[in-house]
Amino acid sequence: MAMLGKRRPRRERSGVSGLQGRQPHSPAYTSSRGDAPSRECEAQGLVIERLAHDGRGVTHDAEGKTLFVDGALPGERVEVAIHLTRKRFDEAHVREVLEASPERVTPPCNHYQRCGGCDLQHLAVPAQRRHKQAVLVDLLARQGIELAAEPELLAGASQGYRRRARLGVKLDAEGRLHLGFRARHSHRLVDIAHCTILMPELDALLAPLHRQLISLQAPRQVGHLELLASDQGSTLVIRQLKEHVADREAWRAFATEHGIHLGWLVGREAPALEWLTPAPLLSCRVPGVERELELRFAPGDFLQVNAEVNRQMVKTALNWLGDLDGETLLDLFAGVGNFSLPLASAGARVVAVEGSPSMVERLDANARDNSLGGELQLSAQQADLAKQKTVAALLQNIGPEVVVLDPPREGAEAAAQALASAPGPRVLYIACDPATLARDAAHLVQGGYRITRIAVADMFVHTSHLESMLLFEHSRTEKRRQGALVDG
Predict the structure, then answer these.
(1) In UniProt terms, what function does this protein have (predicted)?
(2) For the segment 150-206, what is each residue's pLDDT rounded down to a tens digit?
(3) pLDDT for 203-241, tens place per residue?
(4) Can you tell me the distance from the alpha carbon of 191 to that of 180, in angstroms, rounded to the nearest whole number?
(5) Is residue 331 within 8 Å of 377, Cβ to Cβ?
(6) Bridge partners of 431?
(7) Residues within the annotated binding site for [4Fe-4S] cluster?
């Protein structure tokens, strides 16, 4: 798959991409235009042309104005209600599906119409994944990067996959207690009694948690709840705005009854975590070369929500990078070692850099606990990776053969610019935001890199969110590697 991605001249593109190409809008389509916050486009209905990157249907009214339609699929004829009018486009939702797409399915969750957690449950899972692949291809193309083949797909179960979630808690003006996720396009909470994407052991806690909150003496002092599943069982962390002794004991009894670990995070400013049950050593397992590796973490540390897909991503990194024995690898945005530890187990000398001091401590401990510590295997350090000078200094001082980037949604622009200015190492980029990835990929391609492997990871099934992995190689690096193979 060499030469998979290469730079090409920039060309104008439409504003969105989707599962099918843009279709001309017919003059027969009608809409009622006005200033009301919500209005209907009825008559013969509107035909949806494609999906936008965020999963909304895209069409045009009779006057050519673009409509983004929640809950609509390509090829469908729908009546819509417009709930927001803008200068260049309107936002709408489906009032009635007149002709349904063959890829429309019944959402598996009863809360789907109101909850903002999942936005693609009306679309069959294979079509969701094709859409995500198309989005990544389109965003790269907007940066002038054309792919010779479709991205690989890394995917797992479509339900019961999420191992962590944050639940909002609110007592309304009438005294009703709400526990759940935010409503779509709103700060209002939707009560969630059952969540199809949560791991079963976490989903089973939702109804008991609602009853528990109602029974508290001071439920208004609960900010939110965080649920977390690990190899040690289920953990609940309560964000408590103000100390309340009676409620503290009630929560302790709840944890005992349900056999869970319980953390108590108290205070509005700089809250400190206290364990109301014996403190657990939370951990999960990731694949190494010869054995499974144990990754310890704490509440608040970054942890991929989908364990199955994360394991596939780690295995893919090991496969793509191949023989690392004796190579120096720089892992930026390393977290607690999700990629650092497996790559060190492949024989690489890993320097893992993370911005959070507490996660650096756990990363270093994870290296020692998995017998990967020491000067020649894995060392951890803290640095501000948003600064190009910092990354450039790391590249100069360490001289890595491989660089791994696994940044937050803001991306790794400073690192990409530093690599483009001093090219050489192979770059494995793991991205949770395709738009910032495309921006950073453009810096690398302009610096002489090209994409040799690419994959979409369906980390968040039933949502428009996508993760991706790209392997970049520089022309001079490829020549060196090819020469070494010939000499060998």
Answers:
(1) Catalyzes the formation of 5-methyl-uridine at position 1939 (m5U1939) in 23S rRNA.
(2) 999 999 999 999 999 999 999 998 989 999 999 877 888 999 999 999 999 999 999
(3) 999 999 999 999 999 999 999 999 999 999 999 999 999
(4) 5
(5) no
(6) 468
(7) 109, 115, 118, 195
Domain annotation for the chain: domains and CATH numbers? 20-102 (2.40.50.140), 164-275 (2.40.50.1070), 306-487 (3.40.50.150)
By C-alpha distance, which of 121, 140, 118, 127 is closest to 13? Answer: 140
Residue 101 to residue 98: CA distance in whole angstroms: 10
Q: What is the DSSP string of 263-282?
A: EEEE-SSS-EEEESSPPP--
- Active site positions, annotated: 432
Both tokens of 336, joined, read: 């607690």
* Cβ–Cβ < 8 Å for 268, 241: yes
- Between CA 85 and CA 72 the distance in angstroms is 18
| Rg (the chain; Cα; Å) | 25
Cα of 268 vs its chain's centroid, Å: 28
Whether 7 contacts 445, CB under 8 Å: yes
AA identity, residue 315: K
Dump the DSSP string for 7-72: E-------S---SS---PPPTT------SSSSEEEEEEEEE--EE-TTS-EEEE-TT--EEEEET-
Tokens matching residue 382: 């803290």
Global pTM?
Answer: 0.88
Region label for 80, one of left (φ > 0), alpha (ψ between -120 and 50) or beta (otherwise): beta
- Which tokens is 484 given? 């070494």
